[in-house]
Automatic annotation (TrEMBL):
Keyword Zinc annotated: no
One Gene Ontology MF term: glucosamine-1-phosphate N-acetyltransferase activity
Binding note for cofactor: Binds 1 Mg(2+) ion per subunit.
Enzyme active site: H369 (proton acceptor)
EC number: 2.7.7.23, 2.3.1.157
Similarity comment: family membership: In the N-terminal section; belongs to the N-acetylglucosamine-1-phosphate uridyltransferase family.
CDD domains, per the entry: GT2_GlmU_N_bac, LbH_GlmU_C
Region (N-acetyltransferase), start-end ranges: 258-515
Keywords assigned: Acyltransferase, Cell shape, Cell wall biogenesis/degradation, Cytoplasm, Magnesium, Metal-binding, Multifunctional enzyme, Nucleotidyltransferase, Peptidoglycan synthesis, Repeat, Transferase
Record's protein name: Bifunctional protein GlmU
Gene: glmU
Reactions catalysed according to its record: alpha-D-glucosamine 1-phosphate + acetyl-CoA = N-acetyl-alpha-D-glucosamine 1-phosphate + CoA + H(+); N-acetyl-alpha-D-glucosamine 1-phosphate + UTP + H(+) = UDP-N-acetyl-alpha-D-glucosamine + diphosphate
Amino acid sequence: MTQAPPRTVVVLAAGEGKRMKSALPKVLHPLLGRTLVGHVLAAAAPVGAARTLVVVGHGADQVTAHLAEIAPAATPVLQAQQHGTGHAVRIALEAAPESEGTVIVLNGDVPLLRAETVTALVEAHERAGAAATVLAAEVADPTGLGRIVRDPAGGLERIVEERDASADERRIREINAGIYAFDAARLRGALGKLSTDNDQGEEYLTDVFGLLAADGQAVAVHVAADANETLGCNDRVELAGLRRLLRDRINEGWMRTGVTIADPMTTWIDVTVTLGRDAVIDQNTQLRGATAVAEGATVGPDVTLVDTTVGVGATVLRSHATGAEVGDGASVGPYAYLRPGSRLARKAKVGTFVETKNAEIGEGTKVPHLSYVGDATIGEQSNIGAATVFVNYDGINKHRTVIGSHARTGADNMFVAPVQVGDGAYTAAGSVIVSDVPPGALGVARGQQRNIEGWVARRRPGSAAAEAAERALQAGTALPADQPPADASTSESETVHDRGRAGGVGEGARDTRNA
Ligand code: UD1
Ligand code: CA
């Protein structure tokens, strides 16, 4: 391989994007995991530029702040007034007078562009020793775009904007994608000669091609294999169209690596997501940000995962998770909400209508139903009863609840943090646990039940309830009046266990052994 000349990348991102009708600068609109300009920078990254310049103008502060996050090595260059794409490149190169070799210019709003295409354009340009090379594409509807005007020999004569084009030229369907490679020195020379004698009174970068061609310099056209890559984004309808195309590209890519995507039309996967082999993504699922789904895991239907990892063979069903870790073989949902800091170890379960936050849920531990688990650490193989609330907030500060391993907590418990429940401990259903429960103890904290015999007959005489009670008493199916239900607060633990009423663990249930 011969030594490539030094390369400079210039991304044009100063325009307002009027037709987006947005407070957000156009290039900052998100598209499946990156902003528009983020996609363009990613596509340009493999050319290995010594310098990357991004021309900013409209919303410069916002765009600059975003660049600091996603591309700290890039240099923002302010184009205070937007006098056109030629003006923008001129200003960029004035900020980088040392740049020589190849200058690659990319519009900031062409997010489907592939890195391979940029690389192929640059390599073709450098191989040919051209002064300028434009990426072109044949499209069905060229409306609004610059047209490639070829000379009789098929070479590039010039690029004409639609508004400056003749009727004949408007019929040309070969368009300028807004992606170019230039020889730095010859680009500088031509930029100095740009006029503003056009319909918009702007300095058009595209005029560089006509100027160089007229000067006898080699100008070239590199045709994109896939015209979709060259699509720009001017309004939100186009943005939605780009999103669909990118969705399909991403989904197809994963299916070819061995991921099952049941319904690609309703599956939206960010470019930043990773998926393991034999993962199954069911319909109506969004996978966003730094989400990673491991081998053999099943996600969906109806799942949104943001920055969440899902372990080998785990399942996530009809749920929403942000910043969570779901361990190997763990199960989530249906209808769970995992918030940041939720960490489910191997084979843990977070079930139906359960919300978790900053919660470590140990191996094999289950939180099956109707609970809020906030700021908690739970050991291994424990079971949290239905309808439990980890009361983590005292109105000012958040506190932590720690529950040990092999614990069985009753249904409808409140754990008023800070509080601890030891290994192997139980708690009774309906308890408000405000102080620690030692290992192996049964914690009970609730009012004692009393039954007022005959109350319905006296206070609701003639009601359906009274009649039903009467029938039951006649038939002798009622509990004997002299044997009140066992109550954990008064009974020996043995008795309590035999009657299965102590914990009310699991399915709001009586028998902890089946929970
Ligand atoms: C441009 C091309 C057109 C091409 C099309 C592809 C010119 C004159 N025309 O047209 O041939 O088919 O892109 O999408 O170049 N920008 C600046 N500063 C400016 C003006 C623009 O940074 O002063 C940026 C914009 O933010 C945008 C890019 O340059 O990212 C293109 O500008 P835009 O106004 O969208 O150009 P088009 O009219 O679409
Ligand atoms: Ca445009």
